[in-house]
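User: Please fill in residues for this 308-position structure.
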């Protein structure tokens, strides 16, 4: 358990450092957006492509492990729909609630935890899983928001988000890396070293950006739904994944990258998607902030069972 604490706590201390740097205007709002785009469109994709392309795909890909992350996400999505009706959540909050309960921050937090806890091999396995998970998460987020979107240009909005799903740079970099790995296409040494330089800045900068994006002012008015989404995202989703792995008898050495990704807090992109499709941006902000901080404890809880 001590190894888990020694890994998880520093990750979240860097996130908190990002929050304080933002509060002191050393990481001011005008540069958070451009830095976020730099990480999302360049640094993280470069890291994912490099990690996957330089290894044997067959050695890191496992169908049971992949199924153990995709099936629980689908289950939580439909459980969220049932809860939406049971709790009588207003339509303006429903789509955001659904995406907050299953859309995890894989690229920024999940890959960081996988790398600092499991090393390069864990990062590679997590990167492969993340590509498939992001496709499903984004699709379900679009579907959930679309179910409750009543604004103008409905079809235009759906098409816009479908392009976002297919054109996600993290997904594209994972797919490109898989192709290079499967067909054993060598990456020139000069290009590989350039990718490594870019990759090295991705995770620390991503964690600082997460901290700079935290917002505490909207939590009180959205507490009930944010907590409900957090229970689904941080507790039920990993629990279902573990149940799935237990049934299939997948060893911890194989499923730990998947468990880390399932335990990720709500992704910051939920705010953007809620804004575009008339969801609740306040609920999205509250869920991101609460779940990000709570995930420090839930990561330690889940991982301490399997990491000595």
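Assistant: Residues filled in for all 308 positions:
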């Amino acid at each position: 358990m001590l190894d888990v604490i020694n890994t998880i706590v520093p990750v979240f201390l860097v996130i908190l450092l990002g929050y304080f740097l933002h509060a002191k205007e050393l990481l001011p709002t005008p540069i958070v957006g451009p830095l976020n785009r730099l990480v999302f469109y360049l640094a993280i994709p470069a890291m994912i492509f490099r990690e996957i392309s330089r290894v044997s795909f067959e050695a890191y890909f496992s169908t049971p492990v992949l199924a153990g992350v995709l099936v629980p996400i689908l289950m939580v999505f439909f459980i969220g729909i049932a809860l939406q009706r049971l709790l009588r959540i207003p339509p303006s909050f429903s789509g955001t609630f659904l995406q907050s309960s299953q859309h995890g921050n894989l690229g920024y937090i999940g890959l960081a935890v996988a790398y600092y806890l499991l090393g390069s091999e864990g990062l590679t396995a997590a990167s492969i899983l993340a590509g498939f998970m992001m496709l499903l998460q984004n699709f379900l987020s679009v579907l959930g928001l679309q179910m409750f979107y009543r604004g103008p240009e409905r079809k235009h909005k759906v098409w816009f988000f479908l392009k976002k799903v297919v054109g996600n740079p993290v997904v594209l970099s994972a797919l490109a890396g898989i192709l290079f790995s499967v067909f054993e296409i060598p990456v020139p040494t000069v290009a590989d070293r350039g990718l490594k330089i870019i990759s090295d800045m991705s995770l620390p900068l991503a964690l600082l950006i997460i901290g700079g994006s935290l917002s505490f002012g909207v939590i009180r008015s959205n507490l009930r739904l944010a907590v409900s989404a957090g229970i689904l995202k941080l507790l039920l989703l990993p629990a279902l994944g573990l149940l799935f792995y237990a049934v299939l008898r997948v060893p911890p050495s194989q499923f730990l990258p998947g468990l880390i990704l399932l335990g990720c807090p709500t992704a910051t992109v939920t705010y953007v998607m809620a804004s575009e499709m008339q969801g609740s941006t306040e609920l999205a902000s509250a869920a991101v902030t609460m779940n990000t901080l709570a995930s420090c404890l839930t990561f330690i809880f889940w991982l301490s069972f399997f990491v000595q």
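For context: The chain has one domain: 2-303.
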